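Input (structure):
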């Protein structure tokens, strides 16, 4: 019998993955070994999707490097060890493209994770997450376990954190543009609009994770990316069009642009699933915005 358990089950990723047990933060503190052991003892999962992490935007990361390091190392150490002790057959853990070296030749590939220091702004988070890759490898090697990890690019979708300050760019801008339309004000966007990002819809991440759970068994991680960059300016154009905002867009040059680009290669993914169709960004944005408008203000971070 298959029994899938997902950590971080109430978040952006978790809500799109089929699992019998979806753990959220109310179900226990994964930093605490006794609680993790109790959870595994009670549920005895056969498959684990490990998506839980302490995450945050650049602001939170810069101010709390110790907590981002401590919490993630503790969570990952406890979860993977519990998976070993309780004979979990398959584990898929989530890494992130922001753990890559600051200075590295593009595109990012699975082979480049450890080839240089991450950006100082998320040093604690990045090194903790890199250790999840190391852990996955050593568990596989020493105990012959089917543990794998995946690296998604910027995920967006229905269950996001729509907070104006701490959210990622898509949910924050949907919220801001919606308020600008309702209140008849300018739509203020951070930075110059020139940076490029690769976005992937959370439903696609759900499908790819289900695929990885059944099919992927390499020790090296696999990047989940469309390998299609769009500028923040074009993104804003889509959001404005879908929301039907007719006022002025103001580019706030005193706010950070962040990294200019961090393109990643989906070559390995495409070699496994050549027919996979990514949701076009206009379609994913439309669904996300419709959901936002229909549920406002009962949304995460609002
Ligand atoms: P990143 O890929 O880790 O940098 O993640 P973000 O989702 O925070 O994207 C940041 C990019 O979006 C930067 O180029 C920002 O200048 C731009 N951006 C524009 N407006 C906003 C906003 O309201 N919130 C955020 N988070 N980013 C914004």
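Output (sequence):
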């Amino acid at each position: 019998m298959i029994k899938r358990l997902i950590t971080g089950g109430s978040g952006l990723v978790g809500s799109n993955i089929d699992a019998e047990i979806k753990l959220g933060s109310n179900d226990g503190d994964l930093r605490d070994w006794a609680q993790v052991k109790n959870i595994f003892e009670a549920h005895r999962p056969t498959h684990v999707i490990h998506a839980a992490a302490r995450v945050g935007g650049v602001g939170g990361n810069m101010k709390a490097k110790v907590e981002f390091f401590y919490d993630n190392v503790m969570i990952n150490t406890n979860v993977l060890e519990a998976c070993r002790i309780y004979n979990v057959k398959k584990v898929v853990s989530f890494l992130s493209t922001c753990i890559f070296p600051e200075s590295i030749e593009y595109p990012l590939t699975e082979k480049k994770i450890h080839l240089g220091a991450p950006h100082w702004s998320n040093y604690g988070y990045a090194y903790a997450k890199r250790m999840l890759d190391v852990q996955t490898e050593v568990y596989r090697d020493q105990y012959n376990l089917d543990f794998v990890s995946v690296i998604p690019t910027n995920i967006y979708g229905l269950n996001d954190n729509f907070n104006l300050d701490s959210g990622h760019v898509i949910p924050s801008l949907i919220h801001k543009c919606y308020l600008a339309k309702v209140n008849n004000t300018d739509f203020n966007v951070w930075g110059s609009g020139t940076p490029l990002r690769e976005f992937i819809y959370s439903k696609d991440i759900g499908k790819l994770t289900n695929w990885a759970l059944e099919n992927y068994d390499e020790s090296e991680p696999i990047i989940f990316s469309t390998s299609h960059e769009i500028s923040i300016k074009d993104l804003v154009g889509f959001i404005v069009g879908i929301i039907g905002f007719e006022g002025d867009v103001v580019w706030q040059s005193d706010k950070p642009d962040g990294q200019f680009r961090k393109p990643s290669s989906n070559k390995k993914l495409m070699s496994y699933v050549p027919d996979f169709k990514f949701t076009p960004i206009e379609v994913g944005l439309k669904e996300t915005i419709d959901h936002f408008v229909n549920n406002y203000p009962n949304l995460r971070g609002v």
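Notes: DSSP finds nine helices and twelve strands in the chain. The chain has a mean pLDDT of 95.
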